[in-house]
């Protein structure tokens, strides 16, 4: 299993279309009004064996543009749809929905009216292939409350450190565990690759081999050991075995209703198959008018040393090369695969020195990223003996991430050294940039107003500090 299972190659923007213009229209008028298709739209009606299909998705996709482009809308009560504001290109258009299988793809260009036929799923198994991943993950059976606290590897296989069922779920099932990096329940995770399953007829052993795959293998295996490998492997093996035998989610999801049908999903393919996306940003969180219609920036953490960028107005992508202060800065490529990946073999597909983790955008549209820029050892001005006020209060010898600044006007990146490790970055109303964590939980700051007044790198280093509050 690898972080390739994430949607690392796509950027997704959700836009909610206001339906105020329809709110005052009488029901009879709505029923008689045809779909109005503009020159940049594709629209029509979706119908099935029983008539109009409401609450199903219509997908328009093209590879004609500089990057793969997809737009998805939902049909209304009368089965009508409108895919709006499409760049000029040739599109494949089809229907997907709960209770259906994908319809044949129709060819279309903007300005066309295209009526589509929905295809009913022939059986429950076929229908379930389109259910959300969490519906499949809901089949996972966690150890009962009576098994806690764990009694260790010679007992019930649960670590004695696991004091409750809730702790188990948090550590190995939910965000702190597998779902923190993987969309558990999708086809890639509920089924074991044949290349791994062939190593053993025992699904538990296959899961053990699976979590060791790739450069993330050591981390995943350590997580299982933390909670009790024996029981964790049994839990996931039982889950995938029952699915392999034909077990299906108990209930079908409901189709989108009400305002859910006003959502338009736009997707661009914007990176490469060997990276995953950790974070992205498109505006100043304090003022969402900043960088309006501008580029969206993505960070690849361990998997790549560039910001991936999508230009929404041109449907094009680009890259911003990231830099480090010290050429000897560690790289994720230093970590070999624990075991061969079913997708990439023994190849080291993660090769990042900067490991960009999170973003903040300032009011000038500049991007600030938590990034590794040097070896873990801090500079002398962070350590004991320095005149820096914070070093006198709390000298720091180790720090993993500093900052990387990208200015879209100059197209330049600037690595900024700090004493403490940066995590999730955010600006306050006074334009002070805060980190979510530092040594011993102390928060850090870097005042961008000071940085604006000078480009003296040495002085900028001296302003980097953390404060005791």
Task: Tell me what you see in this structure.
By secondary structure, the chain is α+β, with helices and mostly antiparallel strands. It folds into three domains: 3-121 and 256-261, Immunoglobulin-like (Sandwich), CATH 2.60.40.1120; 133-244, no CATH class; 323-466, no CATH class. It contains 13 helices and 24 strands. The protein has helices spanning 20-23, 27-32, 124-128, 133-137, 165-173, 187-190, 194-197, 203-211, 217-227, 229-244, 389-393, 448-453, 457-463, and strands at residues 10-16, 42-48, 51-52, 57-62, 69-74, 80-83, 91-96, 100-101, 106-108, 116-117, 119-120, 263-269, 279-281, 296-299, 306-311, 316-321, 359-361, 367-371, 402-407, 412-416, 425-427, 432-435, 444-447, 465-466. The strands form six sheets. A six-stranded antiparallel β-sheet has the order 1-12-5-4-7-9, with no helix packed on it. Strands 2, 3, 6 and 10 form a four-stranded mixed β-sheet that branches. A four-stranded antiparallel β-sheet has the order 13-14-15-16, with no helix packed on it. Strand 22 and strand 23 form a beta hairpin. Helix 9 (217-227) packs across helix 10 (229-244). It is globular, with a radius of gyration of 26 Å. Mean pLDDT is 87; it is low at 1-9, 12-30 and 438-469.
Name some characteristics of this structure:
469 residues, alpha+beta, Immunoglobulin-like, 3 domains, six-stranded antiparallel sheet, 13 helices, globular, disordered N terminus
């Amino acid at each position: 299993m690898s972080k390739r299972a994430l949607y690392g190659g796509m950027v997704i923007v959700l836009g909610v279309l206001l339906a105020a213009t329809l709110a005052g229209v009488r029901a009879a008028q709505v029923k008689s009004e045809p779909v109005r298709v503009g020159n940049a739209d594709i629209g029509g009606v979706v119908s099935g064996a029983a008539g109009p299909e409401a609450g199903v998705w219509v997908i328009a996709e093209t590879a004609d543009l500089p990057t793969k482009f997809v737009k998805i809308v939902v049909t209304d009560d009368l089965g009508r749809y409108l895919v709006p504001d499409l760049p000029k290109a040739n599109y494949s258009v089809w229907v997907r929905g709960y209770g259906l299988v994908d319809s044949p793809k129709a060819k279309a260009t903007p300005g066309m009216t295209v009526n589509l036929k929905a295809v009913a799923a022939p059986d429950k198994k076929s229908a379930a292939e389109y259910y959300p991943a969490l519906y499949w993950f809901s089949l996972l059976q966690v150890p009962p409350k009576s098994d806690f606290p764990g009694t260790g590897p010679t007992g019930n296989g649960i670590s004695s450190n696991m004091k409750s069922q809730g702790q188990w779920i948090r550590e190995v099932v939910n965000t702190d565990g597998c779902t923190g990096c993987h969309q558990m329940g999708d086809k890639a995770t509920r089924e074991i690759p044949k290349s791994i399953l062939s190593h053993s007829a025992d699904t538990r052993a296959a899961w053990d081999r699976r979590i060791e795959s790739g450069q993330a293998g050591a981390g995943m295996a350590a997580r299982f050991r933390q909670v009790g490998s024996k029981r964790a492997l049994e839990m996931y093996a039982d889950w995938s075995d029952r699915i392999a035998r034909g077990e299906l989610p108990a209930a079908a999801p409901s189709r989108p209703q009400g305002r859910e049908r006003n959502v338009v999903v736009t997707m661009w393919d914007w990176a490469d198959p060997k990276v995953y996306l950790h974070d992205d940003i498109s505006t100043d969180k304090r003022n969402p008018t900043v960088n309006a219609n501008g580029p969206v920036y993505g960070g690849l953490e361990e998997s790549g040393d560039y910001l991936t960028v999508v230009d929404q107005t041109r449907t094009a992508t680009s890259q911003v090369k990231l830099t480090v202060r010290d050429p000897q800065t560690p790289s994720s490529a230093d970590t070999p695969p624990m075991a061969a990946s079913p997708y990439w073999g023994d190849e080291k597909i993660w090769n990042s020195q900067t490991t960009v983790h999170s973003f903040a955008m300032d009011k000038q549209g500049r991007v600030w990223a938590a990034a590794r820029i040097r070896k873990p050892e801090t500079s002398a001005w962070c350590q004991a003996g320095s005149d820096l006020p914070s070093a006198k209060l709390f000298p720091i010898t180790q720090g993993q991430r500093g900052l990387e600044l990208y200015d879209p006007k100059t197209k330049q990146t600037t690595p900024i050294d700090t004493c403490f490790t940066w995590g999730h970055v955010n600006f306050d109303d006074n334009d002070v940039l805060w980190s979510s964590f530092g040594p011993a939980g102390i928060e850090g700051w870097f005042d961008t107003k000071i940085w604006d007044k000078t480009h003296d790198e040495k002085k900028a280093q001296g302003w980097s500090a953390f404060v005791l509050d």
